[in-house]
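tool_call: predict_structure(chain=1)
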Amino acid sequence: MLKSKELVKFKNIKHGFFDRQGGVSKGNYKSLNCGPGSKDRIKDVRKNIEKVCKKIGCNKNNLILLDQIHSNIVHIVNKTPTKKLKGDSLITSKKGIALGILTADCAPVFVYDPVNHLISAIHAGWKGAYKKIITNTLKKLASEGSNFNDLIAIIGPCIDIKNYEVKNDFFNKFIKQKKYNKKFFNAKNNKLYFSLNNYIRDEFLKLGVKNIEIIKKDTYLFSNNLFSARRSIKNKLQDYGRNISVIMIK
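tool_result:
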């Protein structure tokens, strides 16, 4: 489990970016696969999620996971919902409610407001980031009283630029949005590569959030022990596990 150097300073916050170690899943899902949407045995996924809850110190019924749809939809939650919410960002001020994000190359992002005691967990793949999931989350936080100068943003493990090869239509889409976006691409050997974490970081900076930490662990590299959709596809595997990232006010 990886931790933020910034968030560990706060005793009232529990958090973790979990890798694939410490679970019960087998085969391609070995071992801490927390993705109910994978083809893994659901009872193994549930056991893994229970292990995560124990590590974080939350009741398993108080862990909120979204039906993630690569959108810009944000939910403010004050209690555990009766059914799974669709969207890609969660915000709460309630103690004991754990916010969880599932990823396998996309970026899990945490935001903490230490003044108003608000937390957010965001699923930010390229689609969600492009659709302004970061901006929408910050707008919701502002509506709850947050000042952007107070916020701490943590961008968790995701695919690194050196392994994130993209096509020309992907590049053109971002350049059409703003020519300035060219800075997030590298061209090498007639191939294009995209920096997801730096694009996300820039979204925060543009809105005045200055305290930003990037956890530089490339999900694509097998040595980092994280699930990766792109690595699995390259290796011609039919499915892949999901990493879980969780934050809670205790």
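agent: The mean pLDDT is 97. Proceeding to next step.
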